[in-house]
Amino acid sequence: MGILNTVQYAYVASQVRSLATEADPTHSQLCSVDAVGDFHELREKHGVLGKINLRVFFFVDRDARAIVIIGVFKKENNGPTPPATVIIMTRRKRLYGSGKIPRLFGMTERG
Fold first, then answer.
1. What element of type H or E holds 80?
2. Gyration radius (Cα) of the chain, Å
3. Distance separating alpha carbons of residues 55 and 45, to the nearest angstrom
4. Phi and psi for 99 in degrees, rounded to 5?
5. Quick one: which of 57, 71, 73, 47 has its CA closest to 25?
6. Which H or E run contains 35?
7. Could you give the CA distance from residue 46 to residue 35 in angstroms, rounded to a whole number?
8. To the nearest 10°, the Cα dihedral for 46, 81, 87, 107?
9. CA 20 to 30 Å from 91, out of 38, 53, 55, 73?
10. At CA 87, angle to CA 2 and CA 91, rounded to 5?
């Protein structure tokens, strides 16, 4: 919430929810998603976000049938994701996998 206002946050949350409706959120037909290492980034820019170039990093926990958000980054450049950000997200994913981060923040499918 520190990066976005309430309307922007709601928009990004709706984009993540739309990913959850897809058969394979890592190859979205609805949103701009790219692979970064062994996780993915939802890329959002312009529109309701204005000049904010936002990346929502996630991976799919297939066992839990959940999209797990491991971080959000306000990108300031037009190049690739900064290496330091990739390292942070890789560490968070590893901590989640080892059980050191609660499996509380995934969005599970209903049904």
1. none
2. 14
3. 9
4. 85, 5
5. 57
6. strand 33-36
7. 21
8. 40
9. 53
10. 85
- Burial (0-12, 13-18, 19+ Cβ within 10 Å), 58: buried
Q: In this predicted model, what pLDDT tens digit does every residue of 3-57 receive, in sequence order?
A: 899 999 999 999 999 999 999 999 999 899 999 988 999 999 888 999 899 999 9
CA distances from 101 to 75, 84, 92 (A): 25, 20, 8
Of 63, 61, 64, 62, nearest in space to 93 by CA? 61
**pTM recorded for the entire structure:** 0.84
Smallest CA-to-CA distance from 65 within 19, 32, 28 is with 19
- DSSP labels for 48-76? GGTT-EEEEEEEEETTTTEEEEEEEEE--
Bridge partners, 72 (sequence order): 56
User: In a 10 Å sphere around its CB, with 0-12 CB exposed, 13-18 middle and 19+ buried, how is residue 54 labelled?
Assistant: buried
